[in-house]
Amino acid sequence: MSNSPRLSRLALLTWMVAAAVAAFPTWEEWRFRLHPGPVEMHACMGSGWLETSPLDLLRGDLDGIMQNVEAWAIPALLVLGGFLACLGHRNPRSVGRRTAGVLVLIAVIKPATPLYASAEECGGPIPILSTEWFATVMSSWGSTQLCLLGAAALVLLVTRMVSGANSKRLEVASSTGVTWRRPVALLVDYAVVLVVLTFVVQPLLLLTGIDEFFSSIYLGYGLLNGAGLSLDNADPKPLLVLFVVFLYFWAQHSLWGQTPGKRLLRIRLISTRTTVRPTAGRTALRTLIFPLLVFAPVAGPIVLIVDGVWALFDPEGRTLHDRWANTDVTREVSNVQAQM
């Protein structure tokens, strides 16, 4: 019994070190923003920057999200959330795996999202997934990645220590088991929405002649970047994109409780009160909260990050917008499994 206090102090110290290590990239980011140093200007004329890739849309949105993740100390808050979840009698190993997994994911995604320029004069952007792009991404690994990977290792270590010291702690498992299925399903729906906007909505605008009075849809580098609302811009284009996004999620959730992404991952939306798909009004409220609130100026990316982090440590694995809308996402159960 004499080892328990020592282990508790050691575990607390390890959590503190992990949070400090995870916060170091944010400190570096703000130090650079406050003291950026001398600015170098380069002029280049040519058409090298016209080459784009279909993955640029996803890359652009991820780049914006990663910038907010680093600026708002999300990695350190993840570690703090893992610590509080363990104090709340959650299964330490499960919390450790989730927290470390997200830290590693941030470390891998961040250097892969910026728009890298070729070293050649007026060389333009480096094509995604090319040999030069892979070499540039690998050379971009630095202190941020080392800190995030180090924090992930510390989290796994301390949660393994805690679970070993208190093996009788009961595991509080998620009732849905869809924590990692939901972001994959959302990624599928993201791609489907882009296809609808590009190959359905845009041609309809051209065929009907509405584009003469309505600006054509141009998403630029990302759905969030191209359709984000602006307080000082009255361009109606984002409103059309938001209407398509709203109709996509609201109609399918109201009729079937599933989008193509959810169908592929075999999950569905239900009401926590009736355990069947929500009503059209409830689904409309949920859609206004997510995903439309993500397009709000300034606060949108933060809403997306907070909503996702909440699901990692929620006792039932539910997102914050599901909590507010009294809905849940659960896995489909086949008839054979239901009879068993």
From TrEMBL:
Keywords, A to Z, come to: Cell membrane, Membrane, Transmembrane, Transmembrane helix
Protein's membrane topology: Multi-pass membrane protein
* Pfam families in alphabetical order: RDD
Q: Where are the transmembrane segments?
A: 71-88, 100-119, 139-163, 184-207, 238-256, 288-313
According to its UniProt record, where is this protein located?
Answer: Cell membrane
- InterPro entries reported for this sequence: Pra-immunoreactive, RDD
Coiled-coil ranges (or none) = none
Subcellular location, principal = membrane
- Show where the RDD domain sits: 179-326
- The highest taxon in the source lineage is Bacteria
User: What protein does this entry describe?
Assistant: RDD family protein
Its source organism is: Streptosporangium vulgare
